[in-house]
Structure formats: structure tokens, C-alpha cells
């Protein structure tokens, strides 16, 4: 992986060779996050995108408190999706008006916690607005409307808008909800439109940004409500699989220039927000496990490790992939070796789903070697079923 240094045969993360880091942790796998890679990623995005665009971090991609703390110091706001994430966001000292809370199915407890904290609630339904209005006493809750637009984003890894969806308020119903907002004791903050995730193609991203700004402006204009922010989503993908090309940011930057102009022409003080998760952290994380056994079954090599699906569901191919493909994988203690073979990396679970690499070309490895799964900084640790088979939890380190 181009992002990482190599020292002799060893992969280096955060300036330290892998066997030294793993030696400190004890006998269990680990997620290792590189703070410099995260920092550099935010900086390069800032250099490319228009200055007027605000960047928010969607915590669910990687909610490790140290990672959130680091990002809170680099970006302009945090997006949360639960009361647990609210606590993490608040603990970073981020100003409450730069924190927004999205997600269908917020409980009464979630809503009152958000109102008490003073963060913006992205309202996902009429019913949710009614419940919020029921909780108003001394302070006016900050609310934004999350809209389910009447368009779909092409080639998104995960579609989150268009058609019938549990997320957001259908665009055609939004004028009615905005009219209701004017009769509610709430403080209107803006519009939130999130259309999809993991897109590597700039064209549909640009298209969805244009739709989103047009829709947001139409809605605010129609309702006679001035937004403090318009959040047009994100969806920036990272390359996971062979043949994936990194996202081209230049045309997105040019498009955002235009979008920002449209917004400021009508609402000069309104903030234009992008919310990104995996783009900030995904490429800055590596999952490392250890080879426990090496076996050959009817001609096929299996490296059996102490890590697997229970720690890294996404790399096993069971987190939203339709056709299973290998994440980038390497033998982290034989990076200099030219002796390669075809091997499968499996975990300790008694299920054929527990596969970290299927027939990959890898350096010839033995018991005691470490395996690195790259592109693991997002939707790894907390997006995996740790309890399945009761093995130890992986460690998490920000280096
Ligand atoms: C999941 C999510 C994100 C982050 O998506 P990434 O693919 O990690 O960038 C942003 N906003 C909302 C509303 C989400 O649900």
C-alpha cells in the first residue's frame, strides 16, 4: 500500500514496525490508525475544495474517542447518529451548534438528550417533529429537516435516498412539514440531504449535489425560512478492490464552487456542509492479526489467524457486498519477500463466512507472521459482531 512505510520486511504504522506494536498489545488482533494519514487526508481535501465549504465528520465510520477527538480538531463539525455518539461528540468540546443528530428511530431519550445538549436534530419524519415539539419547555430545540429527495444517486455503494426509504422526509411532503415548523417552538437550522455512500465516480456526486442544492433552495424559499446551513451529504468513496480508482476531487471542487455560489446568492450567511465518514479515516486504518496455523487442504493453502469476521465483518464480505471481493491484504512481516503463493486467510470461527482473503497472492507465510488488512479505518471495529463465538476483542490504537 502506497500510504505505508516498510522497514526491512515489516510494515510500519505510525513510525513503528508492526511486530513491535503487536508485541505491546499481547496476544490479540488490533486495529491500528495512523494520525498523520488522517491529518493529511483532511488537509488535502481542504486544499482542493472551496474554502467556503464546511467539512463535518460522520462519527459512525469510526467512533473511537481518540479518532473523533483528532478529527474534531481538524474539521468544522460532527455528525452523530445515537446518544452514545452524542456523548463522544460533546466530550471533544465541539460547539453544540456544529453537531447534528441524524437517524431514523430516535427514541424519546435520544431526543431529550439532544435538546438538553443543544445540538441540531435532523428531523426524519412528521412524527418525530411532533414528539420534539412535545418536549419543548425552556429552550427551543434546534432542528433541521432531513429530506428524502426525489432522485437517486447512480453507482453509490449504498443508496440512502430516492424512492421509498426509512431515511428523511419525502421531498414532496417537506413543504407541509416546513409549514408546521413555523407553528412550532423550534429553532429552524436548515436542510440535510444525504443520498448515498461509497461513490468512486465524481459525476453522480456532482449531479446529486446540484439536485440537493436546488431542492434545498426551493424548499426554503417556498417556506420563507432562511437556513443557517444546508448539508448536501457526502458519499465520497475510497478504493477497496482491485481495479477501483480513487475519486477525482477536481471536478467535485469545481462543482462545489458553483453550488456555493448558488447558495450564497440567496442566503449569504448560510453554511454549505459536506459530511464524510470513511473518506477521512478509511485509508488510515489497518487491521492486523496473527497466523495461528498454516495448513494445506487438497492443494489449497489456508493461513488460519486469530482475527476474522467477528472483528472485521466488512473485510469478510458480509457488510453490504453483493459479490465477495478481497480487501487489500499483505503479510505484514514479509513485506520484502518475493516468494509468493496463492493462499486464503481465514479466521478462527466455525463458519465458511469467516474469510479475510480468498485465494490471494501473498508472501509465503508461517505461524507467527502477521497479516495486515488495509483500508480498515472505517466500518471495522464497531461494525462487526464481536460477540459471535466469544473470542477476545481486538485492540484499537491511534498511532
Ligand atoms: C453513514 C452516513 C454518513 C457517512 O458515510 P460515509 O460513507 O462513511 O462517508 C454520512 N451521513 C449520514 C447521514 C450517514 O448515515
SSE layout:
Elements: E1 5-7, E2 10-13, E3 16-17, H1 18-25, E4 30-33, H2 35-48, E5 53-58, H3 65-72, E6 77-80, H4 83-91, E7 99-101, H5 108-117, E8 120-123, H6 126-134, E9 142-148, E10 158-159, E11 169-170, H7 174-182, E12 187-192, E13 196-197, H8 202-223, E14 229-231, H9 249-266, E15 271-276, H10 278-281, E16 285-297, E17 300-305, H11 313-316, E18 329-331, E19 340-346, E20 355-363, E21 370-373, E22 395-398
Parallel strand pairs: 4-22, 5-6, 5-15, 6-7, 7-8, 8-9, 9-11, 9-12, 12-14, 14-15, 17-19
Antiparallel strand pairs: 1-2, 2-3, 4-16, 10-13, 16-17, 16-21, 18-21, 19-20
Helix pairs in contact: 7-8, 8-9
What does this structure look like?
This protein has helices at about 20-25, 35-50, 65-70, 85-90, 110-115, 125-135, 175-180, 200-225, 250-265, 280, 315, and strands at about 5, 10-15, 15, 30-35, 55-60, 75-80, 100, 120-125, 140-150, 160, 170, 185-190, 195, 230, 270-275, 285-295, 300-305, 330, 340-345, 355-365, 370-375, 395-399. By secondary structure, it is α/β, with parallel strands linked by helices. The strands form four sheets. Strands 4, 16, 17, 18, 19, 20, 21 and 22 form an eight-stranded mixed sheet that branches. Strands 5-6-7-8-9-12-14-15 form an eight-stranded parallel barrel, surrounded by seven helices. β7 (about 100), α5 and β8 form a beta-alpha-beta unit. The longest helix is centred in the middle third of the chain and has 22 residues, at about 200-225. It is elongated. The protein binds pyridoxal-5'-phosphate (PLP).
Amino acid at each position: 500500500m502506497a500510504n505505508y512505510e516498510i522497514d526491512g520486511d515489516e510494515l510500519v504504522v505510525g513510525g513503528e514496525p508492526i511486530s513491535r506494536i503487536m508485541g505491546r498489545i499481547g496476544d490479540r488482533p488490533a486495529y491500528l490508525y495512523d494520525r498523520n494519514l488522517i491529518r493529511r487526508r483532511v488537509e488535502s481535501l481542504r486544499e482542493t475544495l472551496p474554502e467556503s465549504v464546511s467539512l463535518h465528520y460522520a462519527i459512525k465510520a469510526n467512533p473511537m474517542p481518540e479518532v473523533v477527538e483528532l478529527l474534531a480538531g481538524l474539521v468544522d463539525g460532527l455528525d452523530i447518529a445515537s446518544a452514545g455518539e452524542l456523548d463522544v461528540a460533546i466530550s471533544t468540546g465541539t460547539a453544540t451548534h456544529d453537531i447534528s443528530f441524524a437517524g431514523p428511530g430516535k427514541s424519546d431519550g435520544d431526543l431529550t438528550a439532544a435538546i438538553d445538549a443543544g445540538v441540531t436534530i435532523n428531523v426524519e419524519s412528521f412524527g418525530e417533529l411532533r414528539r420534539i415539539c412535545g418536549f419543548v419547555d425552556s429552550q427551543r430545540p434546534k432542528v433541521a429537516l432531513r429530506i428524502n429527495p426525489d432522485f437517486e444517486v447512480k453507482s453509490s455503494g449504498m443508496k440512502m435516498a430516492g424512492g421509498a426509504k426509512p431515511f428523511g422526509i419525502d421531498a414532496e411532503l417537506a413543504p407541509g412539514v416546513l409549514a408546521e415548523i413555523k407553528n412550532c417552538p423550534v429553532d429552524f437550522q436548515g436542510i440535510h440531504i444525504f443520498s448515498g455512500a461509497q461513490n468512486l465516480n465524481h459525476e453522480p456526486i456532482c449531479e446529486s449535489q446540484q439536485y440537493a442544492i436546488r431542492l434545498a433552495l426551493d424548499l426554503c424559499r417556498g417556506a420563507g425560512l432562511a437556513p443557517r446551513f444546508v448539508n448536501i451529504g457526502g458519499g465520497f468513496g475510497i478504493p477497496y478492490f482491485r481495479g477501483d480508482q480513487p475519486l477525482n476531487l477536481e471536478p467535485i471542487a469545481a462543482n462545489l464552487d458553483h453550488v456555493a455560489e448558488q447558495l450564497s446568492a440567496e442566503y449569504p450567511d448560510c453554511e454549505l456542509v459536506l459530511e464524510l465518514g470513511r473518506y477521512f479515516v478509511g485509508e488510515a486504518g489497518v487491521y492486523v492479526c496473527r497466523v495461528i496455523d498454516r495448513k494445506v487442504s487438497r492443494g489449497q493453502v489456508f493461513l488460519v489467524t486469530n482475527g476474522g469476521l467477528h472483528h472485521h465483518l466488512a473485510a469478510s464480505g458480509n457488510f453490504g457486498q453483493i459479490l465477495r471481493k478481497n480487501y487489500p491484504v499483505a503479510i505484514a512481516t514479509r513485506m520484502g519477500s518475493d516468494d509468493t503463493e496463492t493462499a486464503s486467510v481465514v479466521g478462527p470461527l466455525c463458519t465458511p463466512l469467516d474469510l479475510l482473503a480468498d485465494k490471494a497472492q501473498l508472501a509465503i507465510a508461517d505461524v507467527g507472521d502477521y497479516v495486515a488488512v488495509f483500508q480498515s479505518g472505517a466500518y471495522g471495529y464497531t461494525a462487526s459482531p464481536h460477540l459471535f463465538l466469544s473470542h477476545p476483542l481486538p485492540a484499537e490504537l491511534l498511532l
